[in-house]
């Protein structure tokens, strides 16, 4: 009996020891990697409080000394920051409305209605996810130029109303999980398809809609190539273009103000991420879409 | 479950039922129309148009003029085309496998029961939401030869760091390193895969005396192979579309060492207004991506394990 418990204790001691060693190894591997991920954020934030000219300082310091707050006002003075912010928000809001509406309607059709060719069309929709933006970029630009939409926000907003495939996929998958009896009950109560969608299904689909909204926000907030192609007058620039534009100013080209502008640029996305992390992860896992 | 909804359809006469399903089809196509129209106007139409333009001399100010295969012939003799293709291919071959290995490594680490695991997951995923201009600006500084942190840290280790963005031999490696910063997106997908591997399989193998290493290769990797295939394909597609980093950090330099394919395409289309040539470049890109995807899918047959249903 004692021999047995002794052996068991010995075994549990080795197990605990092994457990501690494994965990130690995990931390040893993960901490430097995590530091590598954090470092640019820390550098960006710290450098935004350094005096102008600190870009050429050695050794580089993480903690600014002295701490200066002049870089932020400097950014506001050099570029029309708030104008760019408003422009970005206009585009982001337009795209958001477009994506949510069109993806719900199209997702509903794929999830709930029967019509010839539905599965083929759905496969086609999934296949279009694989078509890279550069392939359609040139002719789409030519069309928008032809109808004089270049240097307006329309080429950046209107395509969102055409139900982007990832959003449709997400909505369809979500609608499939909602019990059909709710639809039937609504039908008995005299709701047509549109009413069923907007009154019954969409309020129940807040998680999926939130996921779409979040991805749409970050994608369009960060988008650089789209605005670069379509927006030519400086007063129409988005914040992403505006921050790059900052580099072309004398002094604005200094690194410290650039970091201040970058901090202000990434903050909304970072906050959104912390508030809605759950939805980000959900979205990625369902659609495989990366930010 | 209600009897009403179960029995109602059977009472409807055949003609009326046909009318109902036709009505449903009409409603279906109507609701589908935003996507159908969008597909024609923003995907299929432009693809056909760009195929046509690729056989044209088209410089925007004058209408397109058919010139047959001249754009493609020009491509064959275009050093910058080869350069951009090589740069992109090198970047793909370096960043995709490395990215997947690191993502898998991190996912396995973060699948352990350790304290603070949620915080780590958050940290690793964070870069995915801030990609773009700001990241390029901060990395341009981090990679600076004399004042950047990377070389400072290397200096502490006694290594003299290279002029990352200033030397053709190193610039592309800076981009590969930077791509590793964004492994979080792939990591999350793999982590979801790892969490779906039944514990019972591991337990059974453990009883049979399989080591942790053996279990990883014989159970974990086959079980998450669909996720690995998926992120491989998406990463390859993504690596052919690198643009913002190159545009901001190096402008394609030094000596075109970071002239990514999309950057070259962009310049042809929007700096030099060579729309015809740019369309040809776009189609070549499309064919390459399609080929890569098909080859990856073919090559993975027999390697990827799909659990029944």
Explain how this protein is built.
The complex is a heterodimer of chains A (291) and B (309). Chain A has helices spanning 2-47, 71-78, 81-112, 118-128, 133-146, 154-157, 165-177, 180-188, 193-204, 206-222, 225-230, 239-246, 255-275, 277-287. In chain A, helix 3 (81-112) runs antiparallel to helix 10 (206-222) and helix 8 (180-188) packs across helix 9 (193-204). Chain A has 291 residues and is mainly alpha-helical. Chain A folds into two domains: 2-47; 71-287, MetI-like fold (Orthogonal Bundle). A two-stranded antiparallel ribbon of chain B has the order 1-2. Chain B is mostly helical and 309 residues long. Chain B has two domains: 12-70, no CATH class; 78-300, MetI-like fold. Chain B has 14 helices and two strands, in the order ααββαααααααααααα.
Write the layout of secondary structure elements.
The complex is a heterodimer of chains A (291) and B (309).
Chain A: H1 2-47, H2 71-78, H3 81-112, H4 118-128, H5 133-146, H6 154-157, H7 165-177, H8 180-188, H9 193-204, H10 206-222, H11 225-230, H12 239-246, H13 255-275, H14 277-287
Helix pairs in contact in A: 2-13, 3-7, 3-10, 3-12, 8-9, 10-14, 12-13
Chain B: H1 3-11, H2 14-53, E1 56-57, E2 65-66, H3 70-76, H4 79-109, H5 117-125, H6 133-142, H7 149-156, H8 168-181, H9 184-195, H10 199-207, H11 212-239, H12 244-250, H13 261-271, H14 275-300
Antiparallel strand pairs in B: 1-2
Helix pairs in contact in B: 2-14, 4-8, 4-9, 4-11, 4-13, 5-9, 6-12, 9-11, 11-14, 13-14
């Amino acid at each position: 009996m004692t021999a047995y418990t002794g052996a068991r204790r010995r075994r549990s001691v080795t197990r605990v020891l092994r457990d501690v060693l494994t965990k130690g190894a995990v931390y040893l591997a993960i901490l430097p990697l995590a530091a590598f991920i954090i470092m640019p954020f820390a550098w960006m934030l710290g450098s935004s409080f350094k005096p102008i000219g600190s870009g050429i300082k050695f050794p580089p310091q993480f903690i600014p000394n002295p701490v200066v707050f002049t870089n932020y006002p400097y950014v506001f003075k050099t570029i029309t920051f708030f104008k760019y912010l408003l422009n970005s928000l206009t585009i982001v809001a337009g795209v958001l409305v477009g994506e949510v509406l069109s993806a719900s309607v199209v997702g509903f059709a794929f999830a709930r209605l029967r019509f010839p060719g539905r599965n083929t069309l759905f496969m086609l929709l999934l296949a279009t996810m694989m078509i890279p933006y550069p392939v359609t970029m040139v002719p789409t630009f030519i069309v928008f130029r032809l109808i004089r939409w270049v240097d307006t926000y329309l080429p950046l907003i209107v395509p969102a109303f055409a139900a982007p495939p990832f959003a449709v996929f997400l909505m369809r998958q979500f609608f499939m999980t909602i019990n059909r009896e709710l639809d039937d009950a609504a039908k008995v109560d005299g709701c047509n398809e549109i009413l069923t969608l907007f009154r019954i299904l969409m309020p129940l689909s807040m998680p999926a809609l939130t996921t779409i909204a979040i991805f749409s926000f970050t994608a369009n907030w960060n988008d650089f190539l789209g605005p670069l192609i379509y927006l030519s007058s400086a007063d129409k620039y988005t914040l992403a273009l505006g921050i790059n534009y900052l580099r072309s100013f004398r002094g604005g080209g200094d690194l410290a103000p650039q970091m201040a502008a970058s901090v202000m640029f990434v903050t909304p996305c970072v906050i959104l991420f912390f508030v809605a992390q759950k939805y980000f992860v959900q979205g990625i896992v369902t659609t495989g879409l990366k930010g | 479950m209600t009897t009403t909804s179960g029995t109602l359809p059977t009472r409807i006469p055949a003609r009326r039922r046909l009318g109902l399903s036709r009505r449903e089809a009409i409603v279906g196509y109507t609701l589908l129309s935003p996507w159908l129209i969008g597909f024609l106007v923003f995907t299929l139409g432009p693809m056909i148009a760009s195929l046509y333009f690729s056989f044209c001399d088209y410089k925007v100010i004058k209408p397109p003029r058919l010139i047959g295969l001249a754009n493609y012939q020009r491509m064959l003799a275009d050093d910058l085309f080869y350069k951009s293709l090589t740069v992109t291919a090198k970047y793909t071959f370096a960043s995709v496998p490395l990215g997947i290995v690191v993502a898998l490594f991190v996912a396995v680490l973060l699948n352990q029961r350790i304290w603070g695991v949620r915080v780590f997951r958050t940290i690793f995923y964070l870069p995915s939401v801030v990609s773009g201009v700001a990241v390029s600006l901060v990395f341009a500084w981090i990679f600076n030869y004399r004042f950047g942190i990377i070389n400072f840290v290397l200096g502490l280790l006694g290594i003299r760091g290279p002029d990352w963005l200033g030397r053709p031999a190193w610039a592309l490696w800076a981009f590969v390193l930077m791509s590793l910063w964004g492994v979080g997106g792939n990591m999350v997908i793999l982590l979801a895969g790892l969490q779906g591997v039944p514990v019972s399989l591991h337990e059974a193998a453990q009883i049979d005396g399989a080591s942790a290493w053996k279990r990883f290769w014989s159970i974990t990797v086959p079980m998450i192979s669909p996720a690995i295939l998926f992120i491989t394909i998406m990463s390859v597609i993504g690596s052919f579309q690198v643009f913002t980093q190159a545009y901001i950090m190096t402008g394609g330099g030094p000596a075109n060492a970071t002239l990514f394919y999309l950057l070259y395409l962009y310049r042809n289309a929007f700096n030099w207004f060579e729309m015809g040539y740019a369309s040809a470049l776009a189609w070549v890109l499309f064919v390459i991506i399609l080929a890569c995807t098909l080859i990856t899918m073919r090559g993975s047959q027999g390697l990827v394990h799909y659990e029944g249903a």
